[in-house]
Structures are given as C-alpha cells and as structure tokens.
Design brief:
alpha/beta; Rossmann fold; 2 domains; seven-stranded mixed beta sheet; globular; disordered N terminus
Length: 400
C-alpha cells in the first residue's frame, strides 16, 4: 500500500527569523556563508557617544580590523570571531551596565574595554562578580591593576609606567618646574600624581595642578591661574577634543610654555588640523607611531595596519587610538586559542600564558597587585613625538 508523500509546511515566521539572524551576523562582521554557524563571541565596551566618542570609535575601528584579520586566517578554534560592541556613552555607570549585559545576556568569555579609567573601574566589580576577564586596552589609572581584581589584564601602560618612559628624556627636555592641567577623572588625577612624583625624584619642582570636567569646553579660568605661575612646562592629560580647546585657549591667553600631553590619546595629526599654529612645538607621549611604522617593534605589522586603516577610509588621525582595539582583540583571541575553549575561567588562566605581537609591540603579562589576587600588566612600547613646522617629527633626543 502506497502512502501519499507529505511535504512539511514552511513556516514564514521561522524563515524570516533565520534570515534576520543571518543578516545580523553579517552586520557583525561575519561572511555570509558563515552567518548561521556558531561563533566565538568577544565583548567590546567603548565610548561610542558622549564627550570622548571620537577615541572610542577609533578603538572600535581597530578592533574590527583585528577581528577581520583573525577571521581571514580561519578564526579561532575553527570558528569565526564575532564582536559584540556596547556603548558606555562616556559614563562609568553605563560601562558597568554594558559589562553586565555582555556577561549575562550574551555569555561572552572575555571583554575588551572600556577606554577611560573611570569606566573600566566601574565595570571591574561586574567582572569579579561573574568571573569574566577583561583586556584593558587604554585605561591608565594605577588602581586598575593595584586593586586586586584577578580578572583584569591591561595592555596599556599605567601612568607610572608612562612616566618612567619619559624619564630618559627629562635631561634633554630641561624641565625645571612643571604645572598640570588634567581631566577630573581617575585617569587625569592618576597622571598628575605619577608625573609629579617622577619630576620630584628627578629634582624638578612641581607647581600648580588644575582640573577640568570631562565635558568642559571653556578652560580659561584654569589657564588664567596657571599663567600666573613660573613654570616652564605644562603637562596636559585629557582626550584629543579637550586638548584642541586647551591649546587654542592657551594661545589666546598667551600662556607661553612647553606643553607635553600624556596618555597617548592626543592624536597629534588631528591637533594640527584643528588647533593649527596653537599645536606648534607641543610634545606628545604616544604608544604608536603611524607616521613612522618602520620604527615600531614589528614594522611590517605596523605598516600593514596603517595600510588597512587607509583602505577602509578611516581618518589617519585615529590611528594613535585605533591600534588599541586591534591589540585588545588579538590578545583576547590568543587567550581563547590557548584555553582551547571559550570559557571565561579557562580564558583568564590562558591570558597568563599569552605571548603575542601587537601593533604596539610584544604583549605578555606580569603580575601586579595584592598577592593572590594579582591582575595582569603588560609592558608596552612608549614613544615621544613633537609637532614641528606643522608636521609630526621625532625629537632629536628620541632618535638616539
């Protein structure tokens, strides 16, 4: 006896859902053919809106390059990497919310974030509560690795390490007395303390310290107070948006002294465009030299990153931030590979074994913080450039 062949009815709702999932995966940076396959997720938290959005978006762009390069080489553990990117809106509370969302809702095994030190510090309790590691790509406050959070692994230098990187140039700079103008965050306050300590130890005098709100646009009151001092140098710590304003306002008020920006977020090319002559002669501590990629620890990798950045039409001035995203993702991927599975604890343990080359240079973690609860701290490359004749140059003393 023959039975009629029955074909299952197609459910339009399920088909539409499958298509939506595939399109979402493609939007997240996955090839169409792999859109419905299981991926390895990496969370990313950056300020994509708010006062420091430019820097956060540059880091995002770099992270996407890192993801695409990894996926182009076959991904990790035989699967493609998917970035789940959250906007912390330049707000510490939002950073904590974003971390919890990525961990609880998205089940990510590792996070890269969260640009500003105050944002990273706000997210850290969530990492410890749920047991998920974070690769810190930008934040420089010492407390991040000193607080005793074993889920933190930082690839950016803390302010103390950055100050030590400048130490070898102090004699050439000839600093006798320095003032400070910094954003009133953990980052800014930490930088004032670290560079102040360095100057005192080197025999230089430390003058006034003024602070500004992260969203402030008029720094004339602070500059007026600093102008009255007798210092020959001003250390400036904030995002590129505020640095531009400070340089212009300092020129208008005829605040005449050597200016050194710290934190690696000054984007000198952007300063030349936006501040013009007010940027002339300024010095900048950086962690990537896109103008001189051959001077980086891996010149070939640095040049490839600069070329890929240009190919995508990203603004050149964003490179001094963008590399951080690439290096953060590469570090996270290497840890997942070494762990053999995208499990948070296994990835945390594997981060201690990571030894990988980033755009900045070699990435490898040393223990920092209270015994038994140490965080990981890498030792990044640190450079100094100067704006000279409207261009970026290596100071003579930095070429030695």
């Amino acid at each position: 006896m023959k039975f009629p062949v029955k074909f299952p009815m197609q459910r339009p709702g399920l088909a539409a859902l499958a298509l939506a999932v595939a399109l979402a995966a493609v939007a997240a940076g996955l090839p169409a053919a792999l859109a419905q396959q299981e991926t390895v997720k990496i969370g990313v938290i950056q300020p994509l809106s708010g006062p420091v959005a430019a820097s956060g978006n540059y880091v995002r762009m770099g992270a996407e390059i890192g993801r695409d390069w990894v996926n182009g080489r076959g991904g990790v553990l035989g699967r493609q990497v998917q970035l789940l990117i959250e906007d912390n809106k330049s707000d510490p509370k939002e950073a904590a919310t974003a971390a919890e969302k990525l961990i609880v809702r998205d089940k990510v095994p590792v996070i890269v974030g969260a640009w500003g030190s105050s944002m990273t510090l706000a997210a850290m309790p969530k990492l410890e509560e749920y047991g998920v590691p974070m690769v810190v790509e930008t934040s420089s406050a010492a407390t991040i690795t000193k607080r005793g959070n074993p889920w933190i692994f930082r690839i950016s230098p803390p302010s103390e390490m950055e100050a030590l990187g400048l130490q070898k140039y102090l004699a050439d700079l000839g600093i006798k007395k320095a003032d400070f103008l910094a954003v009133n965050t953990d980052w800014g306050r930490g930088a004032v303390g670290a560079f102040g300590d360095l100057l005192k130890k080197s025999g230089a005098a430390v003058g006034a310290a003024e602070f500004m709100d992260q969203a402030a646009t008029d720094m004339s009151a602070q500059l007026n107070k600093l102008k009255a001092d007798t210092s020959d140098t001003l250390f400036l710590t904030t995002s590129v948006e505020q640095i531009t304003l400070v340089l212009k306002q300092a020129q208008e008020q005829r605040v005449s002294r050597r200016i050194i920006t710290t934190g690696g977020s000054s984007s000198p090319s952007q300063l030349i465009k936006q501040a013009g002559a007010a940027a002339e002669g300024t010095y900048h501590i950086l962690f990537f030299l896109p103008w001189f990629p051959e001077a980086m620890p891996d010149g070939k990798l640095a040049k490839a990153f600069v070329d890929e950045w240009a190919k995508r039409g990203h603004p050149f001035e964003g490179l001094t931030e963008g590399f951080r995203g690439h290096d953060g993702v590469v570090t996270a991927v290497e840890a997942i590979k070494l762990a053999g599975k995208p499990d948070p604890k296994a990835v945390r343990d594997a981060l201690w074994k990571v030894s990988v080359m980033g755009v900045n240079g070699p990435i490898k973690f040393e223990k920092d913080g209270p015994a038994g609860k140490e965080s990981g701290q890498s030792r990044p490359s640190i450079f100094v450039v100067q704006v000279k004749d409207g261009k970026i140059a290596l100071p003579a003393f930095a070429k030695k």
